[in-house]
Amino acid sequence: MQELNFPQYSFRFKNNQNKTAVFDKLRKKFVILTPEEWVRQNCVRFLTEEKDYPESLINVEKQLKLGDLVKRYDIVVFNRNGNIHLIVECKAPKIKVTQDTFDQIARYNLKLNATYLMVTNGINHYYCQMDYEAEKYNFLKEIPSFQKTE
Fold first, then answer.
1. How far apart are CA 90 and CA 41, in angstroms?
2. Sign of the C-alpha dihedral computed for residues 25, 26, 31 and 37 taken in this order
3. Sign of dihedral through CA atoms 27, 59, 68, 106?
4. What are the residue boundaries of the Type I restriction enzyme R protein N-terminal domain, all occurrences included (predicted)?
5. What is the 3-class SS of 25-85, one letter each residue?
6. What is the pLDDT of residues 42-82, one digit of tens each?
7. Long-range contacts: 101-106, Cβ < 8 Å, 24+?
8. How far is CA 5 from CA 8, 56, 73, 74, 123, in A?
């Protein structure tokens, strides 16, 4: 797979019906390794290993109902009281992160009310903190570690 702008992590792979699969330690199963999944797996490792987010507070690939539409979010991290702390939107490395990407995560956040947003294609990472009073998001240089947000 393509080298990403994350630290190097080790993963378990296997071939499944002529497709490569990667072991997802959160879902505790092998999943087909697409370019977006590669970004998601690296991002989960980044959050757990570099930013100390507890695995038990992270959800991946869950359904979200927006009006009549059913969407899937990539990664959601909860805080210890069960509120949503962080939403991550992952794109394949060849997909440019655009305003449309931020609009997508903002629509998800209308329902989820996260404190932080992260958008990544594995190469470029963007971090925002929500300011609900001013109805905007403020860009950050990096996402805070879990302990700094408690």
1. 10
2. negative
3. negative
4. 35-144
5. CCCCEEEECCHHHHHHHHHHHHHHHHCCCCHHHEEEEEEEEECCEEEEEEEEEECCCCCEE
6. 999 999 999 999 999 999 977 766 677 777 779 999 999 98
7. 102/126, 106/137
8. 9, 25, 21, 18, 5
